[in-house]
Amino acid sequence: EKAELQAYVERDAVTKDGFRIELAANIGTVEESASLLSQGAEAVGLYRTEFLFMGQSQMPDEETQYKAYREVAEAMKGRPVVIRTLDIGGDKELPYLDLPKEMNPFLGYRAIRLCLDRKELLHTQLRAILRAGVHGHVKIMFPMISGMEEWRQAKEIYEQVREQLSKEGIPYADSVELGIMIEIPSAALLASRFAKEVDFFSIGTNDLVQYTVAVDRMNEKVSYLYDYFHPAVIRLIKTVIDASVDAGKWTGMCGSMAGDPLAAPLLLGLGLHEWSMSASSLSKVKKVITDLNRSDCAALVEKILDMDTAAEVREALLAFQP
Ligand code: PEP
Ligand code: MG
């Protein structure tokens, strides 16, 4: 089976009826980027930069960050690398930041909230990313956006950083695409507004599910309720993809749903453009995609949108034979 899957590494991720998707990988470290092209990834759809900040006694400086981002950009040889700005807080701690203990860390001071409060963090990171972008094709993505103000503030810091780099005569990547993660229902519901201003969306189902059905993604006691096939989650995903299509933008997904072969007909039918997953899932998902017709999947989605429960959706997906 391994040899069979290996055959898919070289193939494009295109359905039988010609719908092409971009198949991308999630990474957390520079080292992981080295073998991505040979594993069939066309891009990095999510670089979780927080791991560069964790397990250290102090904040990595601009130079350290620059080197890491540059190495990933170079390893991908001009293919896109979506670099997510620091997503700390929630379950991820940074001792040197002295973060407050919170009753509800996942609803608290994390990710973009923290970075917009301690702006120097975002400033330094964006400088490093833009400088690294000279050596490849980087895109920037902001995590945990809940409303338009946060996105606009982040964009403003990005503009300041560009201006500063220009003034200093330091080379940096121009015309970098800026996107936001959709992992909070409020952002999904406002997707048509965001779509006028951002270049792309990436749906983070790991958090989106947690916030939509109010289920802690780490709590085993309620994990039976945690399900990306929940009809409400599917409606949010559809809202986001439709909004991006209407505005001529693109939508990716970097939560674990994108790497689930069972979800593939649903995501294809909904028209998801970029799929980002752990490298080990790439061939499996590509095999499924190349075996499907998008038009069949769109018909399946019509039926799924009429279902009441995640169990029904799962059953329909299991029964679906292309
Ligand atoms: C997500 O929330 O789906 C996501 C990809 O981000 P993380 O898992 O890092 O929170
Ligand atoms: Mg997340």
From TrEMBL:
Reactions performed catalytically: L-histidyl-[protein] + phosphoenolpyruvate = N(pros)-phospho-L-histidyl-[protein] + pyruvate
Entry's localization field: Cytoplasm
Active site: 254 (proton donor)
One GO term (biological process): phosphoenolpyruvate-dependent sugar phosphotransferase system
Known cofactor(s): Mg(2+)
Keywords: Cytoplasm, Kinase, Magnesium, Metal-binding, Phosphotransferase system, Sugar transport, Transferase, Transport
Any Gene Ontology CC annotation: cytoplasm
Annotated positions binding phosphoenolpyruvate: 48, 84, 206-207, 217
Keyword GTP-binding in record: no
E.C. number: 2.7.3.9
Superkingdom field: Bacteria
Residue stretches making up the PEP-utilising enzyme C-terminal domain: 3-292
Top-level class of the enzyme under EC nomenclature: transferase
Annotated positions binding Mg(2+): 183, 207
GO MF annotation: an example: kinase activity
Family indicated by similarity: Belongs to the PEP-utilizing enzyme family.
Record function comment: General (non sugar-specific) component of the phosphoenolpyruvate-dependent sugar phosphotransferase system (sugar PTS). This major carbohydrate active-transport system catalyzes the phosphorylation of incoming sugar substrates concomitantly with their translocation across the cell membrane. Enzyme I transfers the phosphoryl group from phosphoenolpyruvate (PEP) to the phosphoryl carrier protein (HPr).
Name by which UniProt lists this protein: Phosphoenolpyruvate-protein phosphotransferase
Organism this protein belongs to: Paenibacillus sedimenti
Name of the encoding gene: ptsP
Part of the whole protein covered: 252 to 573 of 573
